[in-house]
Amino acid sequence: MIRAPSGRPLRHVRILLAAVLVAALLGGCVTPRGKTVYEKPGVTDEQQKKDEAQCVQAALDTAGARAATPLAVDRDAVDRCMRERGYSVTVPK
Fold first, then answer.
1. Which residues face 46 on adjacent strands?
2. Are 10 and 45 in the same domain?
3. Region class of 14: left (phi > 0), else alpha (psi between -120 and 50), else beta
């Protein structure tokens, strides 16, 4: 056990190390992807951003078990929502 010079255990260090380990393990489960491009002829940037924000909000509501992580967004649900609104969806590889 790690102890301070006074001989008392450094519990906060153990908690910090555990938090870092958990974050590293969870981070390894997430595969980042590039910026998805949504295009729809005749739509302003403002409208596109509004539509995307609404789709992201809906995806947050349906994120399921992943909702336990901060700001979990089901990107597939966002893409489906944008397609339903008439956008073409380009997902970088």
1. none
2. no
3. alpha
